[in-house]
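Example record used in the benchmark description.
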Amino acid sequence: MLACVRPGEETRLRLNHSRLWMPEAGLAEAYFHNAADNILAALNDDIHPGFFTVCADPGQGHGWNTTFPGLDFGQSAEALLWLGEMERVKLAWDYVRSFQREDGLVPFAIFPGVPAACMSGNLPIAAGGAVYEHWVPGNPLYTLANVTALRLADRIHRHGQDMNWLYSQSDYLARIARWLLRQVDDNGLIRGAGFYLERPLRNRYDGVNQCYSAATLREAAELFAILGRDALADACRDSGNAIAEAFRKHFWQGTQFAEYLNPEHGAIVAHGLTDSDWAAVALHIATPEQIEQLWPRLPGNPAFCYDGMPGGIAEHPDRYADWEVQGIDRHDVAAMGRVWMLQAMAAYRQGDGEELLRNLRQVAERGARDHYRYMERYFSEKTGFCGAYKIATYCEYPANFIRIFQQYFHGVQPELRGAITLAPVVPPKKLAGCGQRLQLGDRELEYTYHADGIRGSYRGKRSSRIDLRLPGRPLLSIGMGATPEFQAFRLEFSADGAQA
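Model output (structure tokens):
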């Protein structure tokens, strides 16, 4: 059950076994409603155990029983991990796993009950309703599901630390990774048009795809190293580094990265700075020298705010040419939660807590005005509405609000090998009084930020190390043993230095 109460000026959220408290009521209210009215409202075990859809009103929007194993699925699944729904996420994972093709490709959509045929728009449907190939020229979303699966496996392991589960997925993950490795061509770039965009077309090499693929293969290398698959770990690491190098070589235009490389028109930079630039910073692909060129022009840039929402794909959305959409439409020339996530990742990597907080407030305030229902896309005043249809109960902004709030505002970073790092970039004076009780698999952590550090308690079936990284302060660490009861700890900076 969910309940939100306000003792005095403090807002508290109770969510399953978790609770959240912070002086800034608007953010806590938004977190509560994004969880309760959106992510959890999209659950429906009547479809299959662990099912969740991408809309908060099952039956509307994108369908009541459809699964999108690409970014939509991954975003909601990660939000559910933060909400303590580990077993549900694993069940949903098993469902998607059952559709993996023999060559390792994961479908980007599953329409159960639809016969193997072609839907409108010539979308090829395979047995069971799986969709592996897009009808739009250039085959956008081609690599999306495989990249998402590797990233989600990493997050499931970070939260749960369940080695039995990870070992049980070893062969499945290996097939996913090997398929992805085969998509790298002689240029060192990865095939597929738009990574998460369909219209406009980003045929043939999408900058966001290069960055996500490179970063994901690097992450996958660490997973395979844990699994003892050293040869595959090396292949993933080498390929991820090679894609990053090729991206910097072919996409960098002196002051920004190209949005995409088109076989006829070359490097596309007509739309100003784009999500390719955000991705290069966010995913640790750009060099320090390139970031020095980019970062003064990215955070706080009003051109990326469409209709009052962060996540616009380009500074100049009105400059997309007709040939870039091939007469279809400009449906994705919009602000979307997936782009906002890149902006938040980049701000966190650059230590820009003000950018993080400003955008969280924007999304929270828009939610409050719209009864905590969010559009799939928000369009710029420069273009007007240019999509085919509107979906007003989409879970992308709510899912990413939860993820950004936890990972980047609170700075909770579950580490791959079991430590829990608390590393906010928001100044401590703005975090003072913020805290939560958080469930990470079979571990629970309760803490409150103070101006001089944190105080909290821990319990879990396994021991864990807790690290505190505050801006401008040295690392503080403490080891916590396995315990069935909460054990108190504190990590604080005293006048004489750090103490744990």
